[in-house]
Amino acid sequence: MPRSSLSLIEFPADDPARAVRFWTELLGVELEARNDSEGEGWQTHSAAPAVGVHARGRGPGDSLSLPYFAVTDVAGALELVEALGGSVIHPGERWAICKDSEGSPFGLTCESVAAQSGD
């Protein structure tokens, strides 16, 4: 897998409106409602990496802040995650949730999806 760049940092929230207000005012950016391909919640569409907020849930991507890394080949990256001792929690073609060899969660997203979120 070639080098990848940080494309999104996502924050789960017990009170999403409060979290959106916090990140908007702290970073001076606008968090907009996500489109269907981005999932639920809000995120920036003008800054890189994007900042996202969504309602807190139970999964590893729903309960902790989660960095997403853009890769050119999600399927190949998932194979590499497992070969390196990590695990795939939520596989997908455009994005996936994984844990590293030490159990820390992170996300992978296809570079073309990451590029669209910056438009």
Break the fold down into its secondary structure elements and pairings:
Layout: E1 5-13, H1 16-27, E2 32-33, E3 42-43, E4 50-55, H2 60-63, E5 66-71, H3 74-83, E6 87-90, E7 95-99, E8 105-110, H4 111-117
Parallel strand pairs: 1-4, 5-8
Antiparallel strand pairs: 1-5, 2-3, 3-4, 6-7, 7-8
Question: How do you describe this structure in short?
Answer:
Helix content is 28%, strand content 34%.
- In round numbers, the mean pLDDT is 86
Structural class: alpha+beta
Strand count, sense and barrel status of the largest sheet are:
8 strands, mixed
Taken in chain order, the helices and strands follow as EHEEEHEHEEEH
Spatial order of strands in the largest sheet? 2-3-4-1-5-8-7-6
The count of DSSP E runs of length 2 or more, i.e. the number of strands, is: 8
User: End-to-end distance, in Å?
Assistant: 25 Å
Helical fraction equals 25-40%
Q: What shape does the CA trace take?
A: globular
Poorly predicted regions: none
Computed CA radius of gyration, to the nearest angstrom:
14 Å
Helical stretch count?
A: 4
Beta-strand percentage range: 25-35%
Describe this entry's structure for a reader.
With 119 residues, the chain is α+β, with helices and mostly antiparallel strands. The chain contains four helices and eight strands, in the order E-H-E-E-E-H-E-H-E-E-E-H. It has helices spanning 16-27, 60-63, 74-83, 111-117; strands at 5-13, 32-33, 42-43, 50-55, 66-71, 87-90, 95-99, 105-110. An eight-stranded mixed sheet has the order 2-3-4-1-5-8-7-6. It is globular and about 40 Å long. The model has no long low-confidence stretch (mean pLDDT 86).
